[in-house]
Amino acid sequence: MKTSPIHTVAVYCSARDGLAQPFIDAAHKLGRSLAEQKTAIVYGGGGKGLMGEIARAALAAEGHVIGVIPRSMIEREAAHNGVTEQIIIDTMHQRKQIMADRCDAYIAMPGGVGTLDEIFEAITWHQLELHAKPMIFLDIEGYYTPLKQFLEHSAELGFIPESTMAAIRFETTIEGVLDALTDTLTITQ
After folding, report:
1. Whether the predicted pLDDT of 2 surpasses 60
2. How many CB atoms are located within 10 Å of the residue 22 CB?
3. Beta carbons within 8 Å of 150's beta carbon, 6+ residues apart
4. Cα(1)–Cα(169) distance, rounded to whole angstroms?
5. Which of 4, 39, 52, 73 is 20 to 30 Å from 59 at the Cα level?
6. Per the confidence metrics, is the pTM higher than 0.85?
7. What total number of domains does the chain contain?
8. What is the reported pLDDT for 3?
């Protein structure tokens, strides 16, 4: 029997197929682990790439998965029709707003410019004090290491406030992400 999720986490990640196995393995493990902790996932709604992997893994572990996908991307990202809840909307702006409204924290797995757009909007909203939700980068295979260095450099030069930097975490393992969520959301099992 399914139980209600305790929290909901927005996960941003790639919808591209053909990625290296460590990224696929991480998406699978994160999806399964969040489901096991009764944490719902709200994500871009796709069935390809890391998006599809995280959704399939969470659903296989009886997790709650909310897919939010614009009509124009249903074919491109091959909408995952087996999610717990599918929200079809008109624009990317609606997608980002719904995901932000539904989540208690943000996780950015490796991804391209779409992933960066989504997580940086969350960071910007934090800096503008529109939310106080934790933001976590899952730095698999050093993918986000140069970005972390850039953000630290920007903060040192005064472009990013310390309060924003304090809300951003970079974790190299799924366990680190889960610990960061536990620290900030008090997830109970």
Report:
1. no
2. 12
3. none
4. 34
5. 73
6. yes
7. 1
8. 56
Quickly state the pLDDT bin for 80 (edges 50, 70, 90).
confident
Average pLDDT of the chain?
Answer: 93
Residue at 171 is within a domain: yes
CA distance 165 to 34: 24
Domain CATH for 129: 3.40.50.450
CA distance 39 to 63: 7
Q: Which domain holds residue 72?
A: 7-182
Nearest one of 182, 10, 185, 32 to 109, comparing CA atoms? 10
- DSSP string computed for 74-140: TTTTTB-TTSSEEEEES-HHHHHHHHHHH-SEEEE-S--HHHHHHHHHHHHHHHTTS----EEEE-G
In a domain, 173, yes or no: yes
